[in-house]
Amino acid sequence: MGEGKQGAMVVEMPNSINQNPITQLQNKFKELETNFKGWLSKQSIAVEAVVVTATSGLQGAAIGGFMGTLTQDVSSSLPTPPPAANLNPQAMASFQQAQALAGGPLVQARNFAVMTGANAGISCVLKRIRGKEDVQSSMAAAFGSGALFSLVSGMGGPNPVPNALTSGIFFALVQGGLFELGRKFSQPPAEDTHYVRTRSLLSSLGLQNYEKNFKKGLLTDTTLPLLTDSALRDVRIPPGPRLLILDCIQRDPELRKRRG
Question: Which of 79, 123, 142, 258 has the fewest other C-beta atoms within 10 Å?
Answer without folding.
Answer: 79
